[in-house]
Amino acid sequence: MNELTHNDGKNEMIEVDGISYIRHPIKTHVVTDKDNINDVCQQYAAPLLQDGDILFISEKCVACTQKRAIYMKDIHPRRLAVILSRYVTKTPHGIGLGIPETMEMALRECGTIRILFAAFISVIGKIFGKRGWFYMIAGEKASSIDGPCPNTIPPYNECVVLGPLNPDETASDIAKHIGHPTLIVDINDLGGNILGASDASADRDLYARILKDNPLGQSHECTPMGIIRKA
């Protein structure tokens, strides 16, 4: 039976603009390309949702059902990817483009010219003590790419996962299926953003702040989706 819970070390509630919100993570099985994301949401989230709730789903969960998880052994980075990946800052919260395989996929997803221009702008930013300019230029396709970390759940500990395709349309389709507003989010322990929303008028900045501390967790919680509920 599905039950509402929260992850160890994570706050269940957050206050934003004077309003308190509860964030309930939802446990699922390990979602793969054999799953249909609508069916996963219907099975695990729909029984828990109430009027006024908003479902939010990890972009990786959605991407994996779209066959956007690519095994590292099947990626053959070009020399440029190897060089560029050396200059990416690595954090404990995600590899990002810091290995040749993820950088290679960024070159394929975004185009070589765009990635080179983003790298050039990034160098200028660092000169002035500014960070994040690379992803401002490279865009969401680049920032959504991630590789395996030590705590990544198998089989994704051997994969590069790309961002989801058509996140707004996918969120809308899920919302129609379960009857509740839906967000597709890219969040980690450093923050994040909203990639897709079933409602075009959704306040993406507000929801990014509600989820900024990543209530889904970043390890083996197996909670790729959750509920936002006003307290």
What is this structure, in a nutshell?
By secondary structure, the protein is of the alpha+beta class. Helices cover 34% and strands 19% of the residues. It starts with 12 loop residues before the first strand and ends with a strand.
Strand order in the largest sheet: 1-2-8-3-6-7
Low-pLDDT parts are none
Largest sheet: 6 strands, mixed
How many whole angstroms does the radius of gyration measure? 18 Å
Shape: globular
Order of helices and strands: EEHEHEHHHHHEHEEHE
Terminal CA distance: 23 Å
The strand count comes to 8
- Fraction in helix: 25-40%
| Mean pLDDT, all residues | 91
How many helices? The count is 9
Strand fraction equals 15-25%
Q: Which class of secondary structure composition applies to the elements? A: alpha+beta
